[in-house]
Amino acid sequence: MTTTAKAVKSYRNYINGQFVEAKETFPVYDPATEEVIASVAVADAAEVDRAVKAARAAFDSGPWATTTAQDRGRILFKLAEKVRANAAMLAELESRNTGKPIVEAEFDIADVATCFEYYGGLANKVTGSVNPVPANALSFTMREPVGVAGQIIPWNYPLLMAAWKLGPAIAAGCCCVLKPAEQTPLTAMELANWLEEAGLPPGVVNIINGVGETTGAALVTHAGVDKIAFTGSAAVGKIIVKAAADTLKRVTLELGGKSPNVFFADADWEAAVDGALFGVFINQGEVCSAGSRILVEKKIYSKFVEAMAEKAKRIKLGPPLSRETKMGPLVSKEQYDRVSSYLALGKSEAKTAIGGGRPREFAKGYYVEPTIFYDVDNSARIAREEIFGPVASVIPFDGEGEAIRIANDTPYGLAGAVWTRDIYKAFRVVKSMRAGIVWVNHMQPTYVEAPWGGYKQSGFGRELGPWGMEEYLETKQVFVNLDEAPIGWY
Ligand code: ADP
Ligand code: MG
Question: Is 288 annotated in the active site?
Answer without folding.
Answer: yes
